Amino acid sequence: MRMAYTEGELLQRAAAGNRQAFSTLYEDCLHDLYQYLYLFTRSKETTEDIIQEIFVKLWEQKAQLTAIRSFRQYLFRMARNKVIDHIRSRRLHHRVTADLLAGADASYADCDHKTLTSQYFHIARQAVEQLPDKRRLIFRLNTEEQLSLDEIASRLNISKSVVKKQLYAAQHYVRRYLREHAELIHLLVAFAYLH
C-alpha cells in the first residue's frame, strides 16, 4: 500500500533512514529514469547498473536528501552525469583497446601516447590488486574471461546475487580509484588522441 506523503515528507523520512519512504521515491521515478538512461546506453544491464549506482549513492548520503528541492530534477541530473562518465569511460576504453590491439604494427613515433596508456593500465591494475581476494577473482572472471554472472556463480558455487553484489562493489571501487588517481592521465590520453 502506497504511503500518502508529499515528496518533501518522503525525503525527510528517507533522510532519517526510512526504507519504505526511500523505496517510494525509487518506485516513483524508476520507469522514467530507466527510459531516459536507456536512450543513451542502449543496454539493459548498463542501465540497471547505473540506476543501482545512483540509488546506492543516494542511500549512502541519505542525510543530504532534506536539502533537495525537486527529487526528480536532482535524480535526472545525477543520471546525466553518470551517462557522461559512462560514455567517456567507454570511449577511452575502446580507444585504448584499439591502440593495444594495433600495438604490434604501430610506429614508435607515438611513444608518449604509449607511455600514457601504459600508466593508465598500471593504475587500473593497482586498483584491481587492492580488491579483496574473492571480489578480485569475480572481477577478473567477468572482465578477463568474459563470464556472465550465472557462469561465475556456477564456477564458484555461490549465488548469482552474491556475484552481482561483489562485481558491483569491485567496479565501483575500480572506477573511483581511477577517478582519484588517473584523472590527469585520462585528460592526457584524450588530448593525445586529438593530436
UniProtKB/TrEMBL annotation:
Q: Name one GO molecular function term.
A: DNA binding
Annotated RNA polymerase sigma-70 region domain ranges read 25-91
Q: Does the keyword Transcription regulation apply?
A: yes
Look up keyword Lipid metabolism and say if it applies. Answer: no
Domain RNA polymerase sigma factor 70 region 4 type: start-end pairs: 124-170
Superkingdom of this protein's organism: Bacteria
Q: Which UniProt keywords apply?
A: Sigma factor, Transcription, Transcription regulation
Biological process, per Gene Ontology: DNA-templated transcription initiation
Check the record and name the Pfam families matching this protein. Sigma70_r2, Sigma70_r4_2
Member of which family? Belongs to the sigma-70 factor family. ECF subfamily.
Name this polypeptide is given: RNA polymerase sigma-70 factor (ECF subfamily)
List the lineage, top down. Bacteria, Pseudomonadati, Bacteroidota, Chitinophagia, Chitinophagales
